[in-house]
Design brief:
single chain, about 950 residues, alpha+beta, Jelly Rolls, Rhopdopsin 7-helix transmembrane proteins, Beta-Lactamase, 8-stranded mixed β-barrel, 5-stranded mixed beta sheet, elongated, transmembrane helix, PAS-like_dom_sf
Length: about 950
């Protein structure tokens, strides 16, 4: 049996239509009582969404019990549509007029991340019977007038502009008007106060002009804009619809967060506390400013970000305020009440937007809370605006200016009423002394009791003299006893005031606490004549006492005083092996030992680094003085326990007996000369100075021995490694001269170099050093052909530099040795080139052209003439060890950085001498230094050991070279 296709098609079309329109079941009518002012229909309506512009629903059952079906078409043709459906019943026998109200914007439940910024809610309302409700033109809400006949049950279908319907109420017309009018006065007051505050803070900014006031004015205007939008004023003034107000509302919320950040950063001066505060604030302001651009695209997203940024700003601000308040910053303390109100407001706002509290008063209450916040901010900054405002404008009296000057200078008023014999003093002095208020006021005799006993008579005499002479000034420094028994120093400056009868009426002036200045002065005086480490007299004080002893001896025709000079043997080795702190402990122990052996009439002083001088006033016999010097050496020789080791040190003693008419400095110098003579004989012995014998004999002997050593091969070179910091490998060596005497043992360069310069042997010694260093360097370079060639630095003396033959010597050495160009490096000190800068510049330029390189040694300790430095063809600067070792000075790293930067700007490499610790090397690496040498990487070694180390130079060196 075939079925006709036409009825089947009709059935399918009807089925699809019913699926699309989703007809609702019959509604339950909501009874509208006569005496109720408002009904909340928000949760009582049924919501529908249709894919078409039509909706078919079932109406509520009428009075006859019949359920009808009606179809409604949207005002916009085509497309989807959103609807709400509800039914109202009038069970009374009277006609009922009601207003259906749907507000455009509602803060409660608007949300945080994607807030509802308001829009038109209801487009049209269609009843199931009767006339269509009248659409009333009301700002801020969609309002429709609904009329219900007696006993009528009417179903209403309302077309929505979007699926969002935040609130729907049915109002009595009179009750709705009363509700609107009840908030009108409140809104007007709040808006007026907000505008006045914004205007007042703006005027305050114009008057004062400091950054704090424009920041607060911006905050006030942001609050005013937010309230004006919230109360619908902006929409009325500019004729804006709900959709246009979305961008305005988002802009005010962004501006509120931005203004709050600017105010906090400006008021608390965050940029002054730390530069990071300024950076974070700047980044945060850039992010908030970018939200204004987002508003043009999507106001909802911009408002959501602003609502998230506001609590972040408030919480971070709270942390900063608490931190600064605990540090005693007065502005942070004054901002605590305002920020407390802001935190409470933020909590209530979060409860509102999240829908946790729902009350018609919460939205205007939050607006009033913002105004209260601005009022507190205004009161806070007004204290800065007007506190001492006269001072800022210069409207102060002459007396006030003088009083402020006293306070600024830290002085207190001192006034003595002579007629009443009463002294009045500023309470600041009583506070400094720890005394009770008024303790220093009263008669002069009571006040004088607080002075130091040695100052009372002098001070009383000054007061009596001023009163007797009726003129003059009081300018006294004295001590006053504090409550804890200490005496503090004070400086009184006053003058008498004479009355009409010519008598002194009072003395007035200022009193200042000068304890710190006096203590610093005493410390400077002490340090000028006493050694800082041991507390013993220094050379200056020792010479003064020696001079006084010589004068007393000549005047009284008594025995002349004697001087013993003790020079410690090998003390530098103790410092090198154990550190400077251990060396200082050794010096302190020796100073205590020597002090115990002296009589009260004798003087012990520390002369130089490891030298001690003893002045004996009662002993001038040579044998007796020598015996006493031997006892001192024996005391020094005893072991000194330091930590878990015993340090032993010996001393060479020199004895000098003063003669009549002898100069003070000559006597000490004679003792030092005798000590050096004892040291040359092997040390740990006593030598008596005899005029003309020791110096001449020692000098002649040492000169002859040095000449023989140069001929006999006793002079040797040792090499100290220079490390390249970029890869921690050996870059070269510095050649150092050593003399091993067959009888005297090792003779330090500090002894034989001056002899060589005086005798002219320095030229021969310098040429020997150049040839031997170039020969060793050539051997190393021949054995090590990979990588950059090694270099060797050789020191040049003044006599060599000022001889034109140096050019020929360098040329001959380079030709005979065949070393790589610029690997033989000549080191010249600053003082040498500055002796004759013009000649030195010419010499150095010619040496550089021969193929040798040049290094400026001990840079920073000599003249450091920068105007000449750029004229010399140096390729390397050697920084003196005094700038490398960490001595605790704050200026040292600044000077070191400046030297390295200067060298790099002049195109020179830098070699730092004296690296003793890993921290020294790390600092040099951070400063960009190229090379370093010091005991950390190796001590001076023989040519063979240097050759072995050079063979391993491809491997990075450890902190302490094993070959050393």
């Amino acid at each position: 049996m075939r079925v006709s296709p036409f009825p089947l098609r009709i059935l399918l079309v009807l089925a699809a239509f019913f699926v699309l329109v989703r007809p609702a079941a019959a509604l339950e009518a909501i009874e509208v009582p006569l005496g109720v002012a408002t009904l909340d229909l928000t949760d009582a309506v049924e919501r529908y969404s249709s894919d078409t512009d039509r909706l078919q629903v079932s109406t509520a059952a009428g009075a006859d019990g019949i359920v009808r079906r009606i179809e409604v078409r949207a005002q916009n043709d085509g497309g989807s549509s959103d609807w709400v459906v509800f039914a109202l019943a009038n069970t009374s026998d009277e006609q009922i007029d009601r207003l259906l109200v749907a507000p455009h914007y509602r803060l409660v439940g608007s949300g945080v991340l994607t807030p509802d910024l308001g829009s038109v809610r209801i487009v049209a309302v269609t009843p199931s019977e009767g006339f269509a409700p009248e659409h009333l033109d009301e700002p801020g809400a969609d309002v429709f007038r609904i009329t219900l006949d007696p006993g009528a049950i009417v179903t209403y279908i309302a077309q929505l502009s979007s699926p969002k319907l935040t609130e729907l109420h049915l109002w009595q017309p009179e009750a709705y008007e009363e509700s609107v009018n009840s908030f009108t006065l409140y809104r007007g007051i709040v808006l007026g106060i907000s505008a006045l505050l914004a205007l007042f803070l703006t005027v305050l900014f114009v008057v004062r002009g400091t950054a704090m006031f424009p920041a607060s004015a911006i905050l006030a205007w942001a609050v005013f804009g937010y309230i004006a939008i919230d109360f619908g004023i902006i929409g009325k003034v500019f004729g804006l619809g709900p959709e246009a107000l979305q961008a305005w509302r988002a802009a005010t919320e962004v501006l509120l967060s931005l203004a709050l950040t600017v105010f906090l950063a400006t008021y608390l001066h965050l940029h002054r506390w730390h530069i990071r505060y300024a950076h974070l604030t700047g980044i945060w302001l850039v992010v908030l400013t970018a939200l204004f651009g987002i508003i043009l695209i999507d106001p909802t997203t911009a408002a959501g970000i602003a609502r998230i940024s506001l609590p972040i700003t408030v919480m971070l601000g709270l942390a900063v305020i608490v931190y600064l308040a605990f540090r005693g910053f007065d502005r942070a303390i004054m901002l605590v009440p305002s920020w407390t109100i802001l935190v409470f407001w933020l909590a209530m706002a979060w409860l509102a937007v999240s829908g946790r509290i729902d009350n018609p008063s919460i939205q205007p209450a939050l607006a009033g809370g913002l105004v209260l916040l601005v009022m507190l901010v205004a009161f806070t900054i007004m204290q800065h605006a007007f506190a001492g405002g006269g001072l800022a404008q210069g409207i102060v009296s002459d007396a006030e200016q003088k009083a402020l000057a006293l306070v600024g200078a830290g002085h207190a008023i001192w006034d003595w009423d002579v007629a009443r014999d009463r002294i009045e003093i500023g309470h600041e002095i009583e506070t400094v002394l720890g005394l009770k208020r008024g303790a220093l006021e009263g008669p002069a005799r009571n006040w004088l009791g607080t002075l130091h006993p040695t100052d009372r008579d002098r001070f009383r005499a000054v007061l009596d003299a001023v009163i007797a002479q009726r003129r003059g000034r009081i300018n006294q420094i004295f001590r006053m006893r504090a409550a804890d028994g200490r005496f503090l120093w004070f400086h009184l400056k006053a003058r008498p005031i004479v009355g009409a009868d010519g008598e002194v009426m009072r003395c007035s002036g200022t009193l200042a606490d000068v304890t710190e200045a006096r203590t610093a002065e005493d410390r400077l005086l002490h340090d000028a004549i006493f050694d800082n480490l041991t507390g013993l007299p220094n050379r200056q004080l020792f010479l003064d006492r020696l001079e006084q002893a010589l004068l007393r001896a000549e005047a009284a025709a008594t025995l002349m005083p004697s001087v013993i000079y003790l020079d410690l043997d090998g003390f530098q080795r103790i410092n090198d092996e154990n550190g400077i702190s251990v060396g200082d402990s050794v010096l302190l122990a020796i100073a205590r030992r020597l002090s115990r052996l002296l009589s009260p009439a004798d003087t012990l002083a520390r002369i130089g680094g490891d030298g001690f001088a003893i002045l004996l006033g009662a002993q001038s016999e040579a044998d007796g003085v020598q015996e006493f010097a031997d006892s001192l050496r024996i005391a020094v020789r005893a072991a000194i326990p330091i930590g878990d080791q015993d340090i032993r040190v010996t001393a060479s003693a020199g004895v000098a007996i003063a003669t009549k008419g002898a100069a003070t400095a000559e006597t000490l110098k004679d003792a030092e000369t005798a000590s050096f003579h004892a040291k040359r004989q092997g040390g740990d012995r006593t030598s008596l100075y005899r005029p003309g014998e020791i110096v001449r004999r020692d000098s002649d002997d040492l000169q002859a021995d040095l000449a023989a050593a140069l001929e006999g091969g006793e002079i040797e070179l040792v090499y100290q490694p220079i490390i390249r910091l970029s890869d921690n490998t050996i870059a070269g060596f510095e050649a150092l001269v050593r003399w091993e005497h067959p009888r005297r043992g090792s003779v330090p360069p500090s002894e034989f170099i001056p002899v060589a310069e005086e005798s002219g042997l320095i030229v021969q010694l310098g040429l020997f050093t150049l040839e031997r260093a170039a020969r060793d360097l050539a051997l190393w370079q021949a054995a090590l052909r990979e990588g950059p060639p090694l270099f060797v630095s050789v020191n040049v003396s003044s006599q060599q530099l000022l001889r034109y033959d140096l050019i020929n010597d360098v040329k001959a050495v380079l030709a005979r040795s065949g070393v790589a160009p610029e690997t033989l490096k000549l080191e010249i000190t600053e003082s040498l080139v500055m002796q004759n800068p013009e000649f030195a510049a010419k010499m150095l330029e010619e040496i550089r052209n021969l193929g040798a390189s040049l290094a400026l040694d001990d840079f920073g300790t000599g003249y450091s003439a920068l105007s000449y430095l750029q004229r010399f063809p140096f390729d390397t600067i050697k920084v003196d060890r005094s700038f490398v070792a960490n001595n605790g000075s704050t200026a040292r790293p600044v000077i070191l950085r400046s030297i390295i930067t200067l060298a790099h700007d002049l195109g020179m490499d830098v070699v730092a001498e004296g690296a003793e610790t890993e921290s020294d090397t790390l600092e040099l690496i951070q400063l960009g230094c190229e090379y370093v040498q010091g005991y950390l990487y190796g001590r001076p070694m023989s040519s063979q050991m240097a050759h072995q180390m050079a063979r391993r130079r491809q491997q990075p060196q450890q902190s302490l070279a094993r070959s050393a």
